[in-house]
Amino acid sequence: MPDGSPLGALDTHTPEQRQQAEAFATAVAACQDFDCLRQANELPRAPGQFRFPHFMVIGFPKCATTSIYCHLIQHPAVQHPKEKESHWLTQRCGPRSLACSNESQQHYIQEILNMPEAAAAKITKAAFEGSTHYVLESEWLPQQLAATFPWLRVVVSLRDPISQAIAMHLHNVMHARDSNCTRGTDSIYHCIRKALKPGSRSHYPSKIADWMKLFPQQQLHFMQYENVTQQDSMAGELTSLKAFLGLDPALPSSQLPLTNYKHVHTGHGPDALGRYWVMKRWELEHLVSIARNNTRETVELLRQHGAAGQQQLERWAAAWERVWEDNLGRCEEGRSAPCKVIVS
Ligand SMILES: Nc1ncnc2c1ncn2[C@@H]1O[C@H](COP(=O)(O)OS(=O)(=O)O)[C@@H](OP(=O)(O)O)[C@H]1O
C-alpha cells in the first residue's frame, strides 16, 4: 500500500474501482448515525478502503494499550481518532445498550472516530478508537457492538493478572479512587485478591468469554503485554497485530513506544508508589495460586477460540509463571516474611 498521500491507496485503481471507491466513501461520509453506517458499510469497497470504523482497542486497562494506540496512529493507513479513551459508548450510550441519542451517535462518528479526516481520505485510512474499559463491559457491549458494527475487528491486550491488578490499583490510588481495600493494613493483598475474583476487572476469563462468543477468531486479536513490551518479541507481536488489522506490517516501525509508563518513574523512594510492593509470602502465594487458575482458564479459552497454537499458549503461560517465580524469589524466609513484588 502506498504510504505517501492519504489517497495513494486509490492511485492504481481502474475507472470502475474509482467509481466504487467514490460511491462507498460518499455513502459512509454522509452518515450521522449507526444505522446509516451499517447500511453504507454493506456497499462494495474498492481495494485500499476500510469499513468504518475498522477496529477498536478495548483493553485491558494497564496492558500497554496507550503505547499500542500511539504505535498505530503513526501508521499512514490508520485514522487518528480525535480522542483516546473516550469511553463514549459505555458512558454516553448506555446504560447497557448502544441506544445513544442521535446527537450522541453523531458526536461519536464525527468527534471520536474523526469522520471529517477519514472522509477526506476517502476511507482509505482505518478508523478506530481505544477505550480500555470496553472489555470489562462484557455482559452487554460485545453483543451490541457485534449487532451495530458486525465487521468490527477487536484488539485485546493481556498482562500477568497480578501485575495488571497492581498497576490498576496504583492508578486508582493516584486518582484518589477505590483505595478502601488497603484501609487498616499496609498490604495491597486484599485489593489484588478482590480484583482477581471471578467477574472482577482482572479476572480475564469472565470478561473475554463473552467477546469470544460474539466475535469470531478472525475479528478478535489477543496480545500478550509481556511479549509486546520485550525487545526480542516486540516486532513479531506488532507484525501480527498489523497483519490482523490488514495493515502493512512494516509500518510505522517495529518499535512499541513507551507511553503511560509509571512503575519506574515514580520517584518517592523504593517503597512508595511504584518500584515494588510489599506483601507477605503467604499473601503472594495465595495470589499466585488464584492467578494460575485464572491463567489456565484464559489459555483454554484462547485455545478453544483458535487465538493461538499450543506452543504459543504454553509460552504465554510460561511468561506469566516467570513473573510470579521472580517475585516469589524475592521473598524472605518464613510464611509471613516480606516479598518485594515487581510488576511485569
Ligand atoms: N513499551 C512499553 N514497555 C513496557 N511497559 C509499557 C510500555 N508501554 C506501556 N507500558 C506500561 O503499560 C501500562 C499502561 O498501560 P495502558 O496504557 O493500557 O494504561 S491505561 O489503562 O490506558 O491507563 C504502564 O504500566 P505501569 O507502569 O505498571 O502502570 C506502562 O508502564
From TrEMBL:
One of its GO terms (molecular function) is sulfotransferase activity. The active site is at 62 (for sulfotransferase activity). InterPro entries: NST/OST (IPR037359), P-loop_NTPase (IPR027417). 3'-phosphoadenylyl sulfate binds at residue 159. It holds the Pfam family Sulfotransfer_3. The keyword Cytoplasm does not apply. Keywords: Transferase. The keyword Oxidoreductase does not apply. This is Deacetylase sulfotransferase. It comes from Micractinium conductrix. The lineage of its organism: Eukaryota, Viridiplantae, Chlorophyta, core chlorophytes, Trebouxiophyceae.
